[in-house]
Amino acid sequence: MTRSQFHHDDLTLSYLDTGGEGQTLIALHALWMEGATYTRLAAALSPEWRVIAMDQRGHGYSDHALSYTRKDYIGDVAALVEHLEVDKAVLLGNSLGGVNAYQFAAWYPERVKAVVIEDIGAAPDADASFVLAWEGIFPSREALEERIGQRLAPYLLDSFRATTNGWRLAFEPREMLESQLQLNGDHWADWLATKCPALLVRGKESRITTQDHCGQMAARRPNTRLVTLDGGHVVHQDNPSGFADIVREFLHVL
């Protein structure tokens, strides 16, 4: 994938692009992560699909911002769509990226062909205050991994950065906490506002969603398919082949 950038809201925002003549799919990562997390999925969907994996504000190689509201994140996606000069795209997102995907579809329905929502509900309410313990520079990569913990560290490896005097994360933990606080809330109206095809993928071992809640999301919104796969909250990393297969199957019939 080739790295490119665009400018919006006084920020330089980075993204990875498979290129090619295929239809456009914009992939939006979870909190703390970055576009590189979708590299394997992009390879699985190419060349039929041109995958754009964005580093959202404050993440990866994109600039840090002063504000992380819902309007800010959705505005960035709108600016990316304009920058790419595509009429319609499929939006795929995990967690934070999933809410951004279905809210963008609600606010800009004419620009969205379909959505793939990966393990996030319509009313997120998570406490991310523990990320404040990740602030600062650590003497070694191992020390940073140890601070993050065995369960979460594998999902953040793309965000590890070497500095002149140690290791740190690409994002600022305080900004991530603010993003989570802004993300929490009742988004049912946005989830139910559209009728484009939707694939809702839940990880069977997820600590973030429940089967009952996701079942309600699928039952209440027309044209929505719920699939539960082995894996946790980050299904595309826990079960890359299963996730790619179900996404490819969904996209094939659009």
Explain what this protein looks like in three dimensions:
Keywords: Hydrolase. GO terms for molecular function: hydrolase activity. One of its GO terms (cellular component) is membrane. Residues 26-245 form the AB hydrolase-1 domain. This is Alpha/beta fold hydrolase. With 254 residues, the protein is an alpha/beta fold. It has a single domain, classed as Rossmann fold (3-Layer(aba) Sandwich), CATH 3.40.50.1820. It contains 10 helices and 10 strands. The protein has helices at 39-45, 70-84, 96-107, 141-148, 153-156, 173-183, 188-192, 211-220, 235-238, 240-252; strands at 2-8, 11-17, 23-28, 49-54, 89-94, 112-118, 160-163, 166-169, 198-203, 224-229. It has an 8-stranded mixed β-sheet with strand order 1-2-4-3-5-6-9-10, sandwiched between helices. A two-stranded antiparallel ribbon has the order 7-8. Strand 7 (160-163) and strand 8 form a beta hairpin. Helix 1 (39-45) crosses helix 10 (240-252) and helix 2 (70-84) crosses helix 3 (96-107). The two termini are 24 Å apart. The relative contact order is 0.16.
Question: What brief labels describe this structure?
Answer:
254 residues, two-stranded antiparallel sheet, AB_hydrolase_1, 10 helices, 10 strands, alpha/beta, AB_hydrolase_sf, hydrolase, hydrolase activity, Rossmann fold, 8-stranded mixed beta sheet
Helix content: 25-40%
SSE pattern, N- to C-terminal: EEEHEHEHEHHEEHHEHEHH
User: Which structural class is indicated by helix and strand composition?
Assistant: alpha/beta
Question: Which assembly state applies to the chains in this document?
Answer: single chain
Strand percentage: 15-25%
Q: Choose one word for the global shape.
A: globular
Mean pLDDT metric: 97
Largest sheet: 8 strands, mixed
CATH topology: Rossmann fold
User: Radius of gyration in whole Å, from Cα?
Assistant: 17 Å
Please identify the top-level CATH class.
Alpha Beta
| Beta-strand segment tally | 10
The CATH superfamily label reads Alpha/Beta hydrolase fold, catalytic domain
Total of DSSP H or I helical runs spanning 4+ residues: 10
Q: Spatial order of the strands in the main sheet?
A: 1-2-4-3-5-6-9-10
CATH architecture descriptor name: 3-Layer(aba) Sandwich
GO cellular component, one term: membrane
Domain AB hydrolase-1: 26-245
Keywords: Hydrolase
GO molecular function: hydrolase activity
